[in-house]
Each structure stands twice: as structure tokens, then as C-alpha cells.
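Extended Data, panel c. Modelled sequence:
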Amino acid sequence: MSFEPTADKLIPDLSSREELVLLARTLVEEGYDDHLAGHITIRQPDDTFLCTPWLLTWDELLPRHVLRIDGEGKVLEGEWPVPTGIPLHLELHKRRHVEVVLHHHPRFGILWANACRIPPIYDQSSALGGGTVIVVDEYEGGVSDRTEAARVADSVGDADIALLANHGVVVTGNSVRAVHQRSVGFEQRCRHSYLMQSFGGGQTLVREVAKRMGGKTGNEFHGFWEAMVRRYLRDHPEVLETRN
């Protein structure tokens, strides 16, 4: 006997703007909380993009604050500035046709970016979301310039997660669920690896297990994103402001 996944029925049907807001807000609780830093873009069916605005922290973001921009970064809808790092997102969308791009400076991910090292995987939860990880160690600074953003995007290539040397983390995926799971899993991987190496080391997760836990697209583990959304909405129902 087989059963259809039911996790999605445990949360409201979310608009793309609500998904973006909940992605940002739930990740704040996972360590993606470096003040004003951080951007998210989500491709829309008409090849425009929803975008987090500049000047607002992720934990105060509401659907009405979300911008819609074109492929050049021009605001089509919204009253806030576009973050300066958005050219990198647009270049990644252009090259990869990826649906969601996230950039931030999470608490432990930034340590491995500063070290220009990929953290090993020590436990199954740290493999959640999977994805190919690379270090872009030739990263030379801001990506507000489209030419520099294009160069960095070329360096990221087909990787799902990139550590930008001395800067932060980029996570890509073809759904909000996938990017949420990859972002949570990768930050946990960074945190646990740091703690394990401080502890003196340990046995890394068997490669086959890590591959099985991680999946291929980051979208295989239904239920995790939905559970985090439910937990967040219990305490913050105002996020779904258009329904109140």
C-alpha cells in the first residue's frame, strides 16, 4: 500500500511572496542573522524575480515588502531599494535557470568561507538537502558590479552551494523547500564540523549514507520545510498578513 505525501496539507497554500518571507524568517532561527545582510530571489513564471528588499532585516520582512524585479535588477513592484548584491543572483539565474538563489553570512558557514575549506559531514542531519559544494577562493569583493558578478557566477558553475572566500554562502535550488533544506543542513554541517574538529575530530559519515540522506535535488525530504513553517506560523501568524 502506498500513501501520497500529506505534509503540504498541514500548512496553508502559500503565495510565492509568503514562501519567500517564510524562507527568510525561518532561516534567521538557523543562524542566517547577520544584521542587514542576505538576499533571496525567486524566479516567477514570467521570468521576473521576487526579491528581498534592502534596509529590512529578515525577521521583520512581510509579503508587502517583497520586491518584484526584472532581469536587469530594475524594480517593477515595491517601494524599497534593491540589495546591492543582486547582480550575482541574476547572473546565476541566467546561467543556471535555477529557480531560487540565496546568499547570506550564516554564523558557522562564514567560518568555513573565511578558511576557504569545505566542511566534512559528521552526521545524517548535516547531509540534509545535499548538493555539490565548492569554494570560490578567487572571490575578490562585492558583486554589485555586473561584470564581477558574472565572473563569480562562472566560478560557481553548476555547484548547488558555494562558499565565497572571506564573505559568505550562496545556496541554489529549484524550489523554496530545496533551498530551505540545503541552507539548514549546510549550516548544521558547518557548525557540527567546527565543533567536532574543536573536539579533536571524529568519524565522518559514510559517503553512501551522506548521498542517500542528501538526495539529488534537495527536494526529496517532504515534511521538514512544512514543519518549520507550521512552527513559525504558530508564533508569528502576522506573516500571512493578507489573510488577516
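The longest strand covers residues 168-173. This feature is highlighted in the accompanying rendering.
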